[in-house]
Amino acid sequence: MSWLETCGLVLGNCLTTFGEDVIYTPQGQAVVNMTGIFDELYEGVDPNTNAIITSRQPILGIRDSDLGQTPRQDDQVLVRGILYRVKEVETDGQGGSRLYLHKVG
What we know:
- By secondary structure, this protein is an alpha+beta fold.
- It has a single domain (3-103), classed as Beta Barrel (Thrombin, subunit H).
- 19% of the residues lie in helices and 47% in strands.
- The protein contains two helices and eight strands, in the order αβββββαβββ.
- The strands form two sheets. The chain has a six-stranded antiparallel barrel.
- It is globular, with a radius of gyration of 14 Å.
């Protein structure tokens, strides 16, 4: 089994355990029902100072293969009945992406 296949299995287990149903709408494409790990209050670490950084910007973690294409800025996601626009996409190089979201309306 390759490294990417192993990462995909691990990510799949995380999605099964912690994920929730979301509706992803890529620009000009068909709607995709998928599972993502949603976090309303993102907390990260500054790589220079190791200080914890808290943001009110919600994020969604996904497995790229579940979407069937590369996620893009300005795609839309419906999570917990709230519509979000993808503000930024950060791929992890292991088959997953972190989507930084902005609430629509």
